[in-house]
Amino acid sequence: MKIEILNTGSELLLGTTLNTHGRWMGQQLFKLGLRVARQTTVPDGDAIRGALDEAVRRADVAIVTGGLGPTSDDITREAASAVTGTELIEDEAALRSLEAFFEKRGRTMAPDNRKQAQVPVGAEVLSNPNGTAPGIYIPPRLNGAANCAIFLLPGPPRELYPMWEAEVVPKLRSLSGGDVLANLAQLSLAMVGESDVHQELDADLAKIAGLEVGYCARLGEVDVRLIGSDDAVKEGRARVLSSFSENCFSEAAESLEQVVVRQMAEHGLKLATAESCTGGLIASRLTDVPGASAVLTHGWVTYANEAKVSQLGVSETDLADHGAVSEPVARQMAEGALRVSGADLAVAVTGIAGPDGGTSEKPVGTVFIGLARRGRETEVSRQLHPRDRHGFKRMVSQSSLDLLRRAVAEKAARSSGL
Q1: Most exposed: 71, 95, 257, 404, by fewest CB within 10 Å?
Q2: CATH of domain 3-176
Q3: One matching Pfam family, short form (predicted)?
């Protein structure tokens, strides 16, 4: 079943409002065994009619969001009426619902709001207890342009999401006739390039019958998406893990920081961070995760050398002899954080974010990452991430979190005797 989504609203194209509907609807539809064939975004006004006319001639289902308000630029109803060749009439039940909405809040309904009670003849009104704009469902039999069902839904998520569950999902199930849900696996890999993953896997994955493969790359990670039958996805997953099991940090669409917090909490481990070049980004990413207070005990931003000395006990002599961006300093920062905090693990970073400050020996993008663990020897990794400051900080934080993830996994394996 071909499904098209039409998002309306000039604010979406101006960039003042983030369009999250496509991502959310794609996820919800896949749960029903359905896929989005196309998504279009148009401004308010006449463009809605043209885009909807095109969509209903291609698709089996057209889902329109937005444009159901009372203002002059909200013309989704009028566009649907014109496209389907149906007349708009005032629905008495919808009008009563609108009046009750305003009365409950002690407000007087403006005359312009009556527009929101208009629906194409024969269409079904979709209840909206969370706003003034009722949704509208136009069955395929009413569509004079093509055999396409049309859903007109409100734009605000607080109104759209409840309406989707209560009104849209049952109708989609009926329209689809119980399509078989394909299996989906998404493996998130850390600190490996998309081209490396593609080069290693693509030829083998292409040999698996009925398997759809996709990649999505971000700084410091790649998602490998597998869609198909249970057997095809199982075989594809095994192939991915045969090459990248150590890089795979999640199969549940978790972020790296979510994984670190969850796994450390599961093992009762405490963490401290000591940051220079990242300016607190590692701690910030960790504390974005609910439940981080059970894991993170201390976070230092020791940007100045004096702070490294006074807060973490870094040697002034080593700073003078080796520089702030060096193996000895990263080691002492990590060990100082571990010692002062009393945590089980500590990670420390010191590097050159640029654009200035690099040398032939230590070019811009150089970073030393120290990992200190109670009862274990401290490890220091030298890495090079020659990017802009934002990209550099993101990559260093990503690498640091991945080192922590691997350390927790190693500790868990030793505890279990593996």
Answers
A1: 71
A2: 3.40.980.10
A3: MoCF_biosynth
